[in-house]
């Protein structure tokens, strides 16, 4: 089980990311635009740098929804490898069963 503070910090990052997503998208579009002037691109870059660091989606960590574990996650299920295995073996995940051949 991960520390509560780590899980809560990641939740705050998710909220910030969602709040600033539109603003970041427009600023990035200006920076990558071929029609924008150098001054507009510079202004967009400085505005992007002034946004909170934790509002970048790269700072959000994929964590297990059950335990909060940050490593060994299966994104499709949102679970860590150990929790996924336990739930799959006990039949709690529909459509998933142990392979045998």
SSE map:
Elements: H1 4-32, H2 38-50, E1 73-74, E2 79-80, H3 81-89
Antiparallel strand pairs: 1-2
How would you characterize the overall build of this protein?
The protein is elongated, with a radius of gyration of 20 Å. It is mainly alpha-helical. It has 3 helices and 2 strands. The mean pLDDT is 94. The chain starts with a helix and ends in a 12-residue tail after the last helix. The protein has a two-stranded antiparallel sheet with strand order 1-2. α1 packs antiparallel against α2.
Q: What attributes does this structure have?
A:
single chain; 101 residues; mainly alpha; two-stranded antiparallel ribbon; 2 strands; 4% strand
- Tell how many strands the DSSP assignment holds: 2
Main sheet overview: 2 strands, antiparallel
Based on secondary structure, the structural category is mainly alpha
* Percent of sequence in beta strands: under 5%
- Spans of 5+ residues with little confidence (pLDDT < 50)? none
Q: Number of helical segments?
A: 3
Helix content: 40-55%
Query: How widely separated are the two ends?
Result: 34 Å
Strand order of the largest sheet: 1-2
Overall radius of gyration: 20 Å
In sequence order, what are the helices and strands, one letter per element? HHEEH
Give the overall pLDDT as a whole number: 94
* General shape: elongated
């Amino acid at each position: 089980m991960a520390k509560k503070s780590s899980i809560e910090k990641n939740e705050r990052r998710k909220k910030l990311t969602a709040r600033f997503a539109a603003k970041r998208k427009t600023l990035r579009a200006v920076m990558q635009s071929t029609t924008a002037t150098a001054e507009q691109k510079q202004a967009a870059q400085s505005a992007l740098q002034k946004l909170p660091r934790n509002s970048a989606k790269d700072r959000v960590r994929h964590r297990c929804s059950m335990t909060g574990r940050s490593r060994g996650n299966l994104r499709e299920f949102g679970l860590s490898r150990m929790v996924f295995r336990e739930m799959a073996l006990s039949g709690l995940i529909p459509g998933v069963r142990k392979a045998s051949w």
